[in-house]
Structures are given as structure tokens and as C-alpha cells.
What does this fold into?
Amino acid sequence: MSFTRELWRAIEPIYAQILAHPFNQELASGTLAQEKFQFYIKQDALYLMDFAKALAMLAAKARTADEIVQFVKFSQEAIVAERALHEFYFSLYKTTLDVSYSPSCFSYTNYMLATASLRSYEEGIAALLPCFWIYREVGNTIHHTASQHADYVQHPYKNWIDMYSSPEYSALVDKMIHLTDAVAVDATPLTKKLMTEAFVYSSRLEWLFWDSAYRMEQWLPVLPTQVAA
It folds into this structure.
């Protein structure tokens, strides 16, 4: 069994709860409230900027020219592809990126940035892998369900589903998985243990990210300025 398959086995209970979460269940059926999806897409736009920075940090730590190029490409492709998706929904909803980080988004992005910058190269890779991999699996599962309906073309979240279930995105994920396996080959048992812990932490934060969008999470305690708004 490859190292990444061992990583996936470690998060299977978390992934099952991600799929079962009302956010993803309602997104699949098209019944997710628009305000919850708007909350999500704005937080995802904030997340994306820090995700790209974390990928760039790993490029600076990479040990081979090929790995440097790959992480630079990951960073660029994440910005280009996902920003286009965000801009589509911003235009559709006639809104802008007019929010600050939610508590869960703040926690996730700062965990990624801290791990990419302060921990080992291997741990940084493992911490960023769930965002790639979990989104593909969720996208594929939702696409399989949603596309069976005759009115799929009218699905309010079709663009989101199509992107994360696309062959292009899947190929990108495969590259990140293969890179993780390649780096793990020479890793010590301790490093592999730390990589697994990082992978699990980020997977839990993935669940929290969707949960925070479903709850439209706000910072507590509420400040007077928030009440006035």
C-alpha cells in the first residue's frame, strides 16, 4: 500500500462525515440556501490566497528543480482556476469579497501557513494534500448524484460541481498525490508519523470549513460594531 493510501485510511471516518454534512448533502441536491453558499464562496476566496502562499512556501523548500516547478504550477493553477470559479459566483450574485476571515477559515489558513513555513517540507506537503484530494472526492461523489437528474443543467451549483469533478482537476490532484508518495519514500518513521498527523489535522479543518459555512459562523464574543452592523 502506498503511503498516501495509508493517509486516506487514517481519515476515512472524517471523510464520511464530510460527505454526510448537511452543507454537502444540500449542495448535491441543489437545496443549499444561497446565503450559505455565498458565505462559503467568499471564505473560499480568502482561503485560496493563503493556500497559494503556502504552496509557494513549499516551492522555496523543494529539494529538486522538478519539485520547485511543480509547486509553482500548483500555486498558479490554484489561483487561476479557483479564482475564475469565485468570480463567476460573485458576478452571479452581484456581490464582492466584502468579508473578513471566519474563525474556521482563519484557523485553517493559519495552520497551513504555519506548517508550510515552520515545520518540515514533508509535513507541509501532507498538510496541503487534503484540500486537493478531499475536494476531488467530494466533487466526484456530488457529480455522480446530481448529474443523474434531467434538470442538472439548471443546478444552481453546477459550475462548482463540474470544476471539482473535472478530469483537469483530477489530474492536478494525482500530481500532488504522486509527489507526496515520492517525498515519503525517504522519510523516517517519525517524519511519516508527523505527516500523518498533519494530514489528519487539515482533514478535520476541511470539515470545520464546510460546517462554518453552513452555520454562517461569526466571531464570538460579538463586538458592539458587529451588533450595530
